Amino acid sequence: MIKNDRQYEYAKNKLHEFERGLKAIRKKYSSDKNKVGLLSQGYVEHIAQLKAEIEEYEKMKKSSLPKVLRARNPVEISRQLVRLRLARGLTQAELAARIGCKQADISRMEREEYQGYTISQLEKIAESLDAEIELDLIPVRK
Questions:
Q1: At a CB cut-off of 8 Å and minimum separation 6, what does 42 contact?
Q2: Are 95 and 129 in contact (CB under 8 A)?
Q3: pLDDT of 69-126, one tens digit each?
Q4: Into which CATH architecture does domain 68-135 fall?
Q5: Would you list the domain boundaries of the chain?
Q6: Hey, what's the torsion of the CAs at 100, 103, 106, 107, to 10 degrees?
Q7: What is the pLDDT of residue 65?
Q8: CA 81 to CA 4: how far, in whole Å?
Q9: pLDDT band, very low/low/confident/very high, at 131 (cuts 50, 70, 90)
Q10: Is the pTM of this model over 0.85?
Q11: Distance from C-alpha of 133 to C-alpha of 12, rounded to nearest angstrom
Q12: Looking at 31-130, which runs of residues are DSSP E strands?
């Protein structure tokens, strides 16, 4: 998931690199379709993934999100925080300044593997972004 403009620009540059690489493979081995298929598969998969991530980021930047964001697990919390921050047009540093923490703290909270949220942190973030966060954390039953 792309979370800021720096990552967005990096992803766009990588996309162009992969597209150029794919074009070169197709040109170099144009007479051998099997070789082209074999050598280009990784490029095709990376291109598709980057396009999807770029499109998602552009959509998040332009969207107006609902006032209430719902999350069922920690991964959804991080994704919703990113979406809300981007929809409000804020950088991680700007959000950090609003709630009185460091940019690195916001970055950590936006990581999908992060699970150390406190209710106080989430309340500060929601208030500073003029939103409500509704958590419905249901443990997975095995």
A1: none
A2: yes
A3: 778 887 888 888 888 888 888 999 999 999 999 999 999 999 988 988 888 888 999 8
A4: Orthogonal Bundle (1.10)
A5: 5-62, 68-135
A6: -170
A7: 65
A8: 12
A9: confident
A10: no
A11: 31
A12: 68-71
